[in-house]
Design brief:
Blueprint (H helix, E strand, L loop, with lengths): L3 H24 L7 E7 L5 E7 L6 E3 L5 E4 L1 E2 L2 E2 L8 E4 L5 H13 L4 H15 L2
Antiparallel strand pairs: 1-2, 3-4, 4-7, 5-6
Helix pairs in contact: 1-2, 1-3
Length: 129
């Protein structure tokens, strides 16, 4: 079995890679629609597994000064990348893919483990009632 930290790191890596694909597709002017397997019921009520397109929300947006801002999410929680900082400012939208590459590398090197841990604990506490 994988250690919890590695599982969490892999979860974040998959999401970051998806965001990178999305950013790359946007910069090249094409659309990126990943597909996932979903179980659906057909007209007779039988369960069938079908590949369905999934919509991915980009983690970046344009700020007031026309800068590109990028947040990193773990589940529904934003990772705090610096003290009180939850977004990276990117001066040039063309740098988006490179910034995502840096984040992927940082995740692989376990540099974001503390932030992932904090976010996953926050998520978990949200489930405790």
């Amino acid at each position: 079995a994988l250690p919890e930290a590695v599982k969490r790191r892999n979860k974040l890596l998959n999401k970051l890679k998806e965001q990178r694909e999305l950013a790359l597709a946007q910069s090249e002017g094409r659309t990126y629609v990943p597909k996932r397997l979903r179980t659906v019921r057909d007209l007779d009520g039988n369960r069938i597994v079908r590949e369905m397109p999934v919509r991915i929300k980009p983690w970046w947006w344009t700020g007031e000064k026309n800068e590109t801002l990028l947040s990193v999410f773990y589940g529904s929680k934003t990772l705090e990348l610096g003290k009180g900082k939850t977004a990276v400012e990117i001066a040039n939208p063309r740098e988006l893919v490179n910034v995502l590459d840096v984040l992927i590398a940082a995740t692989l090197n376990a540099e974001l483990d503390a932030q992932i841990d904090a976010a996953s604990n926050k998520l978990r506490d949200g489930f405790k009632k």
